[in-house]
Amino acid sequence: MSTTTTKDARGKAPAGERVADWADGRLGIYSLAKANMRKIFPDHPSFMLGEICLYSFIIIILTGVYLTLFFHPSMNEVEYTGSYVPLQGQLMSEAFNSTMHISFDVRGGLLIRQIHHWAALVFLAGMFVHMMRVFFTGAFRKPREINWVFGFLLFVLGMFTGFTGYSLPDDLLSGTGVRFMEGAVLSVPIVGTYLSFFLFGGEFPGGDFVARFFAVHVLLLPGIMLGLVVAHLILVFYHKHTQFAGPGRTNNNVVGMPLLPVYMAKAGGFFFLVFGVIAVIAALVQINPIWAMGPYRPDQVSTGAQPDWYMGFSEGLIRAMPGWEIDFAGHTLVLGVFIPLMIFPLVLVAIAVYPFIESWVTGDKREHHILDRPRNAPTRTGVGVAWITWYVVMLIGGGNDLFATHFHLSINAVTWFVRIAFFVAPVIAFIVTKRICLGLQRRDRDKVLHGRESGIIKRLPHGEFIEIHEPLSQEQLHTLTAHEQYEPVEIGPKVDEYGVERKIPASEKLRAKLSENYYGEGHQIPKPTVDEFKEITSGHGHH
Amino acid sequence: MKKLSARRRHPLAAVVVLLLALACTGGLYAVFAPADKAQAEETSQSLAIDEGKKLYSVGCASCHGTGGQGTSDGPSLVGVGAAAVDFQVGTGRMPAQQPGAQVPKKKNIYTQAEIDQLAAYIASLGAGPAVPTEEQYSPEGANIARGGELFRTNCAQCHNFTGKGGALTHGKYAPALDDVDPKHIYQAMLTGPQNMPSFPDTTMSEENKKDIIAYLDAVNSDETVEPGGLNLGGLGPVTEGLFGWIFGLGALVAVAIWVAARTAKAKKS
Which sequence ranges are marked TM in the entry (chain A) (predicted)? Predict the structure, then answer.
């Protein structure tokens, strides 16, 4: 291709073409661009949640680089001589001192710090919502399971990157958080003390942890995350984006707009909008005011010491857990801390493994590119809502003191609420959600068969009043009936081919039972069949 | 002496004697006058105590007993001192509206004169800390940074980093210290009201108390400068998280919906 354009009879090709040609000759981008520039993306507001995450991640990296130019990851003790009067003359670590310097004496330092921190909160919140969007629409199904896991890992790594970053200024609040973490590590039987000494290079807090957390925060975790983000995006390109059901949309096509120019323009604009919103918030609202908290000293502590929201559920687990302690062969086992430490990863893993459980139950090995409406998968939606409820209950536990003071409750009552709700609330949420989904399915069925309630009341000659129902358009009918309904898995025959009673494995029984709960009678509302539709709409004036 | 006795019949001798007598009387009066004044102060003090007792029987006796000895509904007030009364009544906590986990701050309905009378009566029941003078609690010239350090060491575990308040067990709480009168902060440290431990001068010197008052004045009052914008109540990551979710992500989702709604229409060909 390159030779033909340059030797055009009309003379030299335009500059842009020549640059593109030069680049193509060395990078081979032509075929890559040709394949991808016209790549189609479907349109839906919820598909932009992932973009919010991507852009806030970029904002975090950019502002983070600026902060590293001024931050000193060291725990050497210095006396504060900066411009914030209420701390002048106080002894503090160099990490705290340099963060104070960034906040008060570096041009734009406080704004950049606040953008960095607000963007981190939004990044994690965005990932949470994005993950839930993928969950509730069933976008995690084949072929996207790996990408679901990548996304999940990004969320978890984001949590720990956030935690290590939050600890770097070595202020009284974050120091309390690090102490909390050390306490959790110490609670591990047998190896706890060794682990703690290994992490902190000796007795807490020691002189090493800021430098260590710094390396983890700016290099190790973001590096892995960047790799995962790239892999995540490559897989999105490779799999193509999912779409909601609609006329003309099938499992084998993608209906939408091309990447270039439409999505490039939109995505570019959206990046600046995200940056703008975060910058406005950071300019108007304080976050992590370390000057108000003061430098960390192990002998000081403040009430209302909580981690950032994404770690709040671990705080809730600890606060709600009774302070059990048992003596085992001369060793104290601090179950009050160790059990929450064990539940902490389980909470996260519970949602991460769900896609694999669902695919095992359904036995569905086909590819899915059409999204489910949450109501059409009542059990999955119920599980998702139950998990969110569980998570929120733990968050409430993490802020139990503020709930107590601001709603004039007893903190003990809030804690007991959390203890009970931890077990009960997810179950209630599951049942209620499933019922709501089934109700919505009935409503859809009703709409398909009887049309939309028009609000027009008609009086018949014999005096009866009826409401006129308008039939739906073909598009609407298609959208409401496009979903697939599964049959519950049957347990195979009880006897084998020789008539001998077969031993049915427990896993098969469990699977059949779960499947019955997913797709059995009463667990989904059968969508209208063509015959039903024809019969009702065959024009006897029925509504 | 002779000169004096020779003039004893002088016509002005009587006048001189009279003047001397008057001077002596005046002198003696002058000598005794302070004693008389003290007597008068004691009278006004006892008057204040009497008035205070009357106010006490109306407002306080139903819980604290007719003689301040305490009942099942309220503790004994013997020895709590004038400072405790000035704090409790001055901040409107006492008289309490109802029994409960903790008596909240409310509008004070007594004049300062009445509070002083009540304080005088309670102080008369037994020795206790006196109402501090302005010189004692005024934050002028105190060391704010040291006050901050003392606050974080002694107060923050209940009152939060900058005195925004916090929860205690069973519905009790450490109140927020926004714009509390320096006198009341001093008295609270001195007397340890309700669930608060007391910090007498032997534990925390007068100077240190002043430092703490100066710190609170700097970080938690109307004049506090908030670098970086709204402080969201100064409550830390919980409110920050809520704000991030509702206004941060909320705004971004709204923007996303706006962007998604402005799409190029597919050309029908």
Answer: 47-71, 115-136, 148-168, 180-201, 213-238, 267-287, 333-357, 377-397, 409-432
Nearest-Cα residue of chain B relative to residue A412: B170
Buried b (16+ CB within 10 A) or exposed e, A1-30: eeeeeeeeeeeeeeeeeeebbeebeeeeee
How far, rounded to the nearest angstrom, does the alpha carbon of residue A55 sit from its chain's CA centroid? 15
Residue ranges per structural domain of chain A: 2-33, 51-294, 437-491+502-537
- Do strands A91-93 and A243-244 pair parallel, antiparallel, or not at all (unpaired)? unpaired
* Per-residue pLDDT at A5: 47
Cα–Cα distance, A322 to A262 (Å, whole number) = 56
Taking 70 as the threshold, does the pLDDT of residue A124 lie above it? yes
Q: Which residues in A lie closer than 8 A to residue B101 (C-beta atoms)?
A: 410
Q: Where are the beta strands (DSSP E) in A338-442?
A: 370-371
Question: In order of start, what are the domains of chain B with their CATH numbers?
Answer: 19-129 (1.10.760.10), 132-225 (1.10.760.10)
**Taken in order B99, B104, B109, B112, is the CA torsion positive or negative?**
positive
- Per-residue three-class SS string for B70-136: CECCECCCCCCHHHHHHHHHHCCCCCCCCCCCCCCCCCCCCCHHHHHHHHHHHHHHCCCCCCCCHHH
Interfacial B residues in 1-30 facing A (CB < 8 Å)? none
Whether A116 shows a pLDDT value over 80: the answer reads yes
From the CA of A457, how many Å to the nearest CA of chain B? 34
For the record, the structure tokens of A92 come out as 């503090």
Residue of A nearest to B167 (CA): A401
> Residue A92 carries which side chain, given as an amino acid letter?
M
HEC per residue, A20-84? HHHHHHHHCHHHHHHHHHCCEECCCHHHHHHHHHHHHHHHHHHHHHHHHCCCCCCCCEEECCCCC
CATH architecture assignment, domain A51-294: Up-down Bundle (1.20)
Which of A253, A287, A396, A408 is most worth mutating to test chain B (most B CB atoms within 10 A of its CB)?
A287
Please write the tens of the pLDDT for every residue from A356-413: 999 999 888 899 999 999 999 999 999 999 999 999 999 999 999 999 999 999 999 9
Choose among A414, A115, A104: nearest CA to A282: A115
* Helix or strand (DSSP H, E) at A469: strand A465-470
Residues of chain A contacting B246 with CB distance shorter than 8 Å: none
pLDDT tens sequence across B222-243: 888 888 888 888 898 999 999 9
Assembly ipTM: 0.90
Separation between Cα atoms, residue A397 and residue A417, nearest integer Å: 9
